[in-house]
Design a protein that fits this description.
3% of the residues lie in helices and 49% in strands. The chain has 2 helices and 57 strands. Strands 1, 2, 33, 34, 35, 36, 37 and 38 form an 8-stranded antiparallel sheet that branches.
């Protein structure tokens, strides 16, 4: 499909703007065009489809009048009424299809922890603490069954039979008639947290403690079908095609055996009467616990450096092995609902996200401000943390999508904005921007720019900053929604100066040379620069790493320069005599990280060298430079002086003096035989002036005596003497 005319115009303008930005340096494009990209943002009234598109969700109406502190469960009746189980006062609310809220019934227990509708539409409720199940007719509760447990966590009908999941102890009961029930499973887990009956007649259950998924088939055979690595099975749902979805979660904030969505177990225990209508499987009385049930546990703040909590949704698809189709190390799944032939809705916390999960992919359906989506029941959504109740509606829709914060690396200028998608006639798609220097938007960020028609917003209207966000506001035309498939935002990092991390001179006569072909280490000197006095080393180009060699009279400057932009960096070198303020060029346009030159053109003395590195080639007109000076470097090209200092008996006294550097080695040879090292009178060659004594063997006293001296700058002098 060709995009509408305004979109094509936007694309042309975006390209023109981008070319202007790219004239100075390479621009970068922040692209969002997939389910994963869009799901990282916040969607309020906007859904991310499994195909990676942004569309308007069904309209969502918040129902006023649901002010209970805790919402535990909800079921939707055939007429559209929704019954809501609440905490603190034991009330069951009825929310009509039109949004009217009223108290339908009140239990003796303070917490209504589970609800179910019978085949005839009668409402059943589980109360905690106490473990009783009530049948509610015309708003009046009557005791239906006593489990003798502390908690009634879930109720589910399979045919005419009502199944009950309990906590402390973790059991499953089957009730076939008022007061007539039996325990069909006693789990080693402390809680059976969820139940679900499929259209095929199978009963699925999930435990808290080890996170086991159990299945009871129509013949009554129970089997563990999945042993998760998590703590608790928080929800189970099935679709019309027979696929079963199970949510398993863990939280490091809970104690062993404690349900994620329930308070800690109480410390005291008191016995109480046996169950009404128990059929003999459990006739002995059990010690019971008197408890006060508090609010469901909120998804905890993530501990620094720890996983904190995690969830996954596991798909059971016929004979295929169970497999995780969605997982998160930052969110917990609290409920599943609205399963169709290919997907299921998942309510999560603590980010308030509702996901649509399929067997092969997932998408963000919407985001809630209340941060914990704990109930998904048909077209009803309920939250905890801050309790709220919503119902989905048909009709005209509006919504906003806020992209995740983009880190551009450092302060950047922003350029073109472009989107690909469809905006039906009469619908609206508008865009706004903001930017800042902190990773999380705060008061230092710019305000959101005014919304503009996205087809006209060819330029990002946000000041320079390191971080950028865009948001879309969508409005439908009747039931026709705008669709966004791709969003592009151009930016260019401000040019960063090269960083000179190190700059120093190597030792006298030390040079770097690369071998071009593995041959000898022979290289030639170039002629002095036609514009200067210095001779450098010229050798065949090679990519091999340089090796350190010695060449008399040469010095090598070496450095390490980095550029965070990856720009090409050229360096230039200057020098000045120590004590002078005038810098004299030495070499320019050096791409390597070292430079060797012949110092024989310089008088002896101390010099300071300066390295200046520039990224001008990559940033014409916007270059950045960095400079760094070396420590003083001594240039010494004068050899030591060797002179005779007299005789002492049969020993010849020699004195070696150097004008600039310490004398490092003195040797002698008789009749051109091998050199013999002399030890100075003070025992250590470390001074510009040293004295030595030479005592020859009788047979060498008439021979040809040579003395050779070397200073720290590798200058060498030689002299001949008559043997004493």
């Amino acid at each position: 499909m060709r995009p509408p005319l305004p979109l094509r115009v936007t694309a042309v303008l975006a390209a023109a703007l981008l070319s202007r930005v790219a004239g100075a340096a390479t621009a970068k494009i922040w692209t969002s065009d997939s389910t994963g990209d869009f799901s990282a943002g916040e969607a309020r009234g906007v859904a991310v489809t499994v195909d990676g598109e942004l569309v308007l969700s069904r309209a969502l109406e918040r129902i006023e009048g649901v002010g209970e502190a805790v919402l535990y469960d909800a079921v939707t009746a055939k007429g559209g009424d929704v019954f809501v189980a609440t905490g603190e006062a034991g009330r069951i609310l009825r929310v009509s299809a039109s949004g009217k809220v009223e108290t339908f019934a009140t239990l003796v227990e303070k917490q209504v922890t589970s609800l179910a509708l019978g085949p005839d539409g009668t409402l059943y409720a589980g109360g905690s603490p106490g473990g009783k199940v009530y049948r509610i007719e015309a708003g009046k509760p009557s005791l239906f069954y006593d489990t003798k447990a502390q908690y009634v966590w879930a109720l589910a009908f399979s045919g005419p039979s009502l199944f009950v999941a309990t906590g402390l102890p973790g059991e499953i009961h089957r009730i076939d008639a008022p007061g007539s029930g039996r325990r069909i499973h006693a789990s080693t887990e402390p809680h059976v947290r969820t139940l679900h009956a499929t259209t095929a007649g199978d009963l699925w259950a999930g435990t808290s403690g080890s996170g086991l998924v159990l299945k009871i088939d129509r013949a009554g055979t129970l089997a563990t079908v999945y042993d998760s690595s998590k703590t608790e099975v928080t929800a189970i749902e099935s679709g019309p095609d027979g696929r079963v979805w199970a949510a398993v979660s863990s939280s490091e904030a809970t104690s062993a055996g404690e349900p994620i969505s329930a308070p800690p177990p109480p410390p005291s225990r008191t016995p109480r009467p046996g169950a009404t209508g128990d059929t003999g499987d459990d006739k002995e009385k059990k010690p019971e616990v008197t408890v006060t049930v508090g609010a469901p546990r909120m998804a905890p703040a993530r501990p620094p450096g720890r996983g904190g909590y995690s969830s996954e949704i596991v798909l059971f698809d016929g004979d295929e092995p169970p497999r995780a189709v969605w997982s998160s190390s930052e969110e917990m799944v609290f409920d599943l609902g609205d399963a169709d032939a290919s997907s299921v809705l998942a309510g999560t916390g603590p980010k308030g996200r509702l996901y649509r999960v399929s067997r092969d992919t997932w998408s963000l359906d919407r985001t809630f401000d209340e941060k914990q989506v704990s109930i998904v029941a048909g077209d009803a959504i309920a939250t905890n943390g801050a309790s709220a109740f919503y119902r989905m509606r048909n009709g005209a829709r509006t919504g906003e999508y806020v992209a995740a914060v983009k880190d551009t690396g450092r302060t950047s200028a922003f350029g073109a904005f472009r989107f690909e998608g469809d905006v039906p006639q009469g619908a609206k798609l508008e865009v706004g921007f903001r930017s800042g220097e902190s990773a999380s938007p705060d008061t230092t960020w710019s305000a959101w720019s005014a919304f503009r028609d996205a087809a006209d917003a060819a330029k990002i209207s946000a000041p320079p900053g390191r971080y950028l966000q865009w948001k879309l506001r969508m409005s439908s035309a009747g039931d026709r929604s705008p669709t966004v498939r791709r969003v592009e935002a151009a930016y260019r990092n401000r040019n960063a100066a090269p960083v000179i991390e190190a700059f120093f001179a190597m030792g006298p006569s030390e040079v770097f040379a690369r071998s071009a072909g593995g041959g000898s280490n022979v290289f030639e000197t170039t002629a002095p620069d036609e514009k200067g006095i210095f001779t450098s080393l010229d050798e065949a180009k090679s990519e091999s790493p340089p090796r350190k060699l010695l060449r008399k009279g040469y010095r090598t400057l070496t450095w390490k320069v980095t550029d965070s932009d990856g720009d090409l960096v050229d360096s230039s070198l200057e020098f000045r005599p120590l004590g002078s303020t005038r810098w004299i060029p030495l070499k320019s346009d050096v791409r390597d990280s070292f430079y060797s030159f012949d110092t024989s053109a310089l008088p002896d003395g101390e010099y300071v060298f300066r390295l200046t590195s520039s990224d001008a080639e990559s940033n014409p007109g916007e270059e950045k430079k960095s400079s760094r000076e070396s420590s003083p470097v001594r240039i010494d090209n004068t050899p030591p002086v060797i002179r005779r200092a007299g005789s002492e008996g049969k020993a010849l006294r020699i004195e070696v003096v150097d004008s600039s550097s310490p004398v490092t080695e003195v040797e002698y040879s008789v009749n051109a035989r091998e050199w013999v090292t002399l030890v100075p009178d003070d025992g250590l060659s470390d001074s510009p002036k040293e004295s030595y004594s030479i005592t020859l063997k009788p047979e060498d006293r008439t021979g040809y005596l040579l003395v050779r001296a070397t200073d720290a700058a590798h200058n060498v002098a030689a002299a001949s003497f008559s043997a004493p």
